[in-house]
Write a structure and sequence with these properties.
With 191 residues, the chain is mainly alpha-helical. 63% of the residues lie in helices and 4% in strands. α2 (20-31) packs antiparallel against α4 and α7 packs antiparallel against α8 (155-168).
Length: 191
């Protein structure tokens, strides 16, 4: 049976090779309880012979891995759903001192994964079936700007944000410059 750390590693392995169906099943088991968890656990075992210990719950590493995998493979809706799950919790994690259960805060790691998805899949297309579009990116970007005080993005993250904006805006310099101004206002000039 998989406990917390091996669970995250195995889930990431399935997700990274494109088996998001199995990664999602594992995630569903980790979020469920009672009879629902037993049923989902049996289905997971029948499909892949994976057994998840009852103590396993989503933690930051699990959320980040699944957000990143969905974004990498182009599934914005699922990436954002897992991000939302992370924010509304509850999430259980154990430190040396205690076990804690509460919602997690937005993280640079989660935002980086989503912005990389916009860089990878972003389009300036305005067709109804376009997903990774500027309006959606701007919504995520606004949430990013709302990070708690003290949050400091790395330069590489800023690069992915600006590159994604460049791509989804159809290379509109005004959109990118507006974002630069907002980033400087929120996080400083990086000096």
């Amino acid at each position: 049976p998989l406990d917390q750390k091996p669970f995250g590693v195995v889930m990431w392995a399935f997700a990274s090779v494109g088996r998001l169906d199995i990664a999602e099943r594992m995630y569903a088991v980790s979020r469920a309880s009672g009879e629902e968890r037993e049923l989902l656990g049996r289905e997971l075992y029948d499909a892949e012979e994976v057994v998840v210990m009852d103590s396993v719950r989503p933690n930051g590493a699990v959320y980040h891995a699944l957000i990143q995998a969905h974004a990498y493979h182009g599934d914005l809706a699922r990436s954002l759903r897992v991000f939302q799950d992370m924010l509304v919790g509850p999430t259980t994690w154990t430190t040396k001192a205690k076990e804690s259960t509460e919602a997690l805060k937005p993280t640079m790691v989660a935002f980086r994964a989503i912005f990389l998805g916009f860089y990878r899949h972003g389009t300036a297309a305005t067709s109804p079936d376009a997903v990774w579009t500027l309006p959606r990116l701007l919504l995520v970007f606004q949430r990013f700007l709302d990070l708690p005080p003290g949050a400091r993005p790395k330069r590489t993250l800023l690069f992915w944000i600006l590159t994604a904006l460049w791509r989804t805006s159809g290379r509109d310099a005004d959109v990118v410059l507006d974002a630069v101004e907002k980033l400087q206002e929120r996080f400083g000039s990086g000096k």
